[in-house]
């Protein structure tokens, strides 16, 4: 068993976060052998034996942040219970070798669970990478095309725009449609799109986090050898997706499936191996695929957290069930907005309103600061809209409980009654 240094080995440990109290039994009650070395003890008890976690969920706020975002409470509690000593290994996941059998079991299970959640076929690689979705804005063109190749970008918000701008450095991208002049409120009809017959790929952002515009259906590239690429950062694992419609899907974890620091890429294997010569090794998908995401030290703890979330989503019944919950939550919030007689307003076209990010404005914009202040008093935080659009935005990812949305809706009605 591993030896662990502690500052005060016999002191009762009490950690209080603003969300949860965790009581650990005094170390003296645990069967431990103090070694000769000062402040060093070796423990034979597992963390689970000695840890009693009392969840006081009333201590947690409802966090409507766009990301990093709220995580499922049971996942946090499980991580907490395993933090100090993972499965009797005598160490936390943060301290493990990424090449050891324990971490391998963690990453393999995370991948297997994600594969069953999204029904990912064998001919797709699943990669756990770093650098956020922003890094993928460069990695996608670097891996999927040669410098002069044409590619199409359908821009329904500022993330798609950023992806396009980054691609300009590595290939020949064209914006085939942009919603910018209308302030990004819709997805165009696919029929009228002027898709390039030679484009190596067509890029979309499946859910624009800032503007709250979500694809409900997907366009098909005109080039029969071209592929659809999607940034799914903010709706990843929020509903079933037919992965086979895509050549590549990427998603930063910090909205729906874990902490920041992990970016997941799902890529069809036949697309691997053609990276441009200048591609940094860390951006070469083939290298990561050949090494099962262990070419270098991966974001181990973040991957472990994603794994706990995937396990939780499977326990909930998979993505069909998760989608039903998300539809219900989004439904009551959009209804409240639409029924407010203009007091609140969501600018996005109804057919493409996001189930994840709900932007809305107040008719009397001078009340926005008060709305945010009052909401915060009620333990509903991070409702301020993105700095580029203003207003409010409620991000209601998988982990936002229905109770959180119901509380927000009740608050909005109350606020309206006071100020209408
Ligand atoms: N794409 C989308 C849709 C996003 O919402 C974000 C982050 N909010 C990004 C890309 C950028 O992600 P990261 O900060 O992980 O690079």
UniProtKB/TrEMBL annotation:
<dbReference type="GO" id="GO:0006564">
    <property type="term" value="P:L-serine biosynthetic process"/>
</dbReference>
<dbReference type="InterPro" id="IPR015424">
    <property type="entry name" value="PyrdxlP-dep_Trfase"/>
</dbReference>
<comment type="pathway">
    <text>Amino-acid biosynthesis; L-serine biosynthesis; L-serine from 3-phospho-D-glycerate: step 2/3.</text>
</comment>
<keyword id="KW-0718">Serine biosynthesis</keyword>
<protein>
    <recommendedName>
        <fullName>phosphoserine transaminase</fullName>
        <ecNumber>2.6.1.52</ecNumber>
    </recommendedName>
</protein>
<feature type="domain" description="Aminotransferase class V">
    <location>
        <begin position="61"/>
        <end position="408"/>
    </location>
</feature>
<dbReference type="InterPro" id="IPR022278">
    <property type="entry name" value="Pser_aminoTfrase"/>
</dbReference>
<dbReference type="GO" id="GO:0004648">
    <property type="term" value="F:O-phospho-L-serine:2-oxoglutarate aminotransferase activity"/>
</dbReference>
<dbReference type="InterPro" id="IPR015422">
    <property type="entry name" value="PyrdxlP-dep_Trfase_small"/>
</dbReference>
<keyword id="KW-0032">Aminotransferase</keyword>
<comment type="similarity">
    <text>Belongs to the class-V pyridoxal-phosphate-dependent aminotransferase family. SerC subfamily.</text>
</comment>
<dbReference type="InterPro" id="IPR015421">
    <property type="entry name" value="PyrdxlP-dep_Trfase_major"/>
</dbReference>
<keyword id="KW-0028">Amino-acid biosynthesis</keyword>
<dbReference type="InterPro" id="IPR000192">
    <property type="entry name" value="Aminotrans_V_dom"/>
</dbReference>
<dbReference type="Pfam" id="PF00266">
    <property type="entry name" value="Aminotran_5"/>
</dbReference>
<comment type="function">
    <text>Involved in the plastidial phosphorylated pathway of serine biosynthesis (PPSB). Catalyzes the reversible conversion of 3-phosphohydroxypyruvate to phosphoserine.</text>
</comment>
<keyword id="KW-0808">Transferase</keyword>
<keyword id="KW-0663">Pyridoxal phosphate</keyword>
<dbReference type="GO" id="GO:0030170">
    <property type="term" value="F:pyridoxal phosphate binding"/>
</dbReference>
<dbReference type="GO" id="GO:0009570">
    <property type="term" value="C:chloroplast stroma"/>
</dbReference>
């Amino acid at each position: 068993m591993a030896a662990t240094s502690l500052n005060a080995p016999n002191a009762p440990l009490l950690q209080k976060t603003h969300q949860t109290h965790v009581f650990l039994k005094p170390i003296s009650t645990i069967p431990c052998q103090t070694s000769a070395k000062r402040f060093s003890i070796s423990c034979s008890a597992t963390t689970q034996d000695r840890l009693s976690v009392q969840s006081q969920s009333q201590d947690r706020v409802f966090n409507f942040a766009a990301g990093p975002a709220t995580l499922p409470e049971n996942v946090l509690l499980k991580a907490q219970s395993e933090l100090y000593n993972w499965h009797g290994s005598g160490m936390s996941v943060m301290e493990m070798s990424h090449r050891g059998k324990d971490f391998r079991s963690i990453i393999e299970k995370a991948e297997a669970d994600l594969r069953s959640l999204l029904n990912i076929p064998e001919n797709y690689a699943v990669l756990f990478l770093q650098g956020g979705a922003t890094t993928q804005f460069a990695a996608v063109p670097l891996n999927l095309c040669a410098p002069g190749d044409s590619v199409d970008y359908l821009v329904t918000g500022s993330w798609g725009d950023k992806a396009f701008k980054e691609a300009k450095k590595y290939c020949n991208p064209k914006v085939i449609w942009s919603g910018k002049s209308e302030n990004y409120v819709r997805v165009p009809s696919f029929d009228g799109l002027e898709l390039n017959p030679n484009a190596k790929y067509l890029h979309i952002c499946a859910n624009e986090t800032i503007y709250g515009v979500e694809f409900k259906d997907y366009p098909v590239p005109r080039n029969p050898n071209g592929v659809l690429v999607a940034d799914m950062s903010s709706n990843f694992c929020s509903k079933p997706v037919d992965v086979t419609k895509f050549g590549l899907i990427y998603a930063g974890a910090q909205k729906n499936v874990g902490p920041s620091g992990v970016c997941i890429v799902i890529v069809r294997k036949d697309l691997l191996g053609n990276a441009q010569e200048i591609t940094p090794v860390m951006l070469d998908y083939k290298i990561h695929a050949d090494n099962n995401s262990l070419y270098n030290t991966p974001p181990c703890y973040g991957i472990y957290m994603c794994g706990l979330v995937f396990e939780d989503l499977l326990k909930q019944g998979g993505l069909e069930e998760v989608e039903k919950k998300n539809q219900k939550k989004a439904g009551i919030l959009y209804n409240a907005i639409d029924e407010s007689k203009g007091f609140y307003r969501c600018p996005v076209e109804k057919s493409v309103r996001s189930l994840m990010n709900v932007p809305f404005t107040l008719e009397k914009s001078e009340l926005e600061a008060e709305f945010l202040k009052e909401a915060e008093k009620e333990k509903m935080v991070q409702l301020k809209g993105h700095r580029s659009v203003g207003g409010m935005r409620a991000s209601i990812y998988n982990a936002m409980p229905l109770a959180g949305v119901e509380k927000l809706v009740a608050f909005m009605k109350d606020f309206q009654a006071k100020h209408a």
